[in-house]
# Entry
Amino acid sequence: MSNNSSIVDPDNSLDYILLFRLIVWGYVGMVLSLFGIVGNIITILVLISPSMRTTSTNIYLTALSCSNILFLLIFIPSYSMRYLIGYRLYITNQPPFAFEILLTRLPTTPIYNTILLSIIYLTIAVSMDRLILVKFPLKAKQILTPRTTWIAILSIYLFSILYCIPYWLEQEYKPEHKQCRLTHIGRKIHKYTRIYIYIPVVYLIPFITLTCINITIIVNLIATKRRKKTLGAKTNKKKQADYHITLMLVAVIIVFVLCQIPLLVLNAWHAIDPHGSSQSIVFHSLNSIGILLIVFNTSTNFLLYCFFGQKFRKTLVRFTLHLFLNSNKQINLQTRISKLAENEARALQPIQVSDHVKVEPNVSIRKSNQSNEIMHQVLSNTSAQNSTLNTSIIQEESSPLLTKSEQISTINEDLSFKSGQKLNLYKCANGKQLLILQI
# Structure
């Protein structure tokens, strides 16, 4: 684990260590953390899809992604933001600033260790899951049930919480020093929690277990592939999918072990030589890189899933296309609604009557000066014409008689035109002319 307290170095290497932490934890760590949070959220959305959430492996990977997100959310304020905000104050040896005091008061160390331990043992659980599936394919369906998987996940979280209880009692905040100091209990259990128990439980046992499991899975995969190649048997789709999942998890375990090795070596170094390691610039530089490798591991699992997981990749593509098509449908619906509203607004605009009468939309009506005069005459004598509408009306071109007054509407000044409507000139039997809108 890292110690963020000031480093006393007579060789003036403090500036170098602070600058190195600013670059590694501040800038690089922040970018990796943000990418990892987004990637793990996408991973959870894909793994909880109906076609993926039924297998025990995907349930383990979903829980692992949740722990990864929590770890990165702790890392950003405790490491990245701490050095991005406080670097200049550390360089000038200023007293602790408000954000650092807040972080010191919060129990970040026990929470950090709890989440890290859950990540380690969830990785062991998912590797054991694939080992059972590879070694005992006939019994795997009975052993690896969703209920068993959830019991294992809850047991891992419970174990992580119980193991990290001493970290809650190890330190307490001293307002006069504005720092956390070891409590009476903390001084007694410090060596056990940091060396004798910590190194085996957090590094040695997981490292040896994962190495053995990975070697067994790889040997079994190679033997299975050679046997199928010798027999010339064709692989069905289910076995091919299981092969890709197993290959993906082998890659995940290899990356995990490689990222854990530096901190294992550094903790062993610190256990052997506490004073010399704390004064070594090499130790602090490697410690910064070791913690960054853990961030890298928790942030890049999404890329490993995409690269090695064929089913994961296909599900992700379908999920992305589904979101994209739904967004396009909503955009098209909004566009259609806006166009309809615009057409309605245009249709309700009043008509302009002039030498060239224009009707919106896309309708243009031209009439002579005589037609305009007739229209104004009709508008002024509407009430008089309504009493004589029962009279026969003859159209100007074919002169048919109109015997029903319902066929003629009263024209008023608020008349508006729509597309497809026309004005026709009619001649009545008594010699009068009417300009009638055809609906």
About this structure: Confidence is low (pLDDT under 50) at residues 1-11, 351-372, 382-415. Residues 379 and 428 are 16 Å apart (CA to CA). The longest strand covers residues 422-428. Strands lie at 171-174, 179-182, 356-359, 363-366, 393-395, 422-428, 433-438.
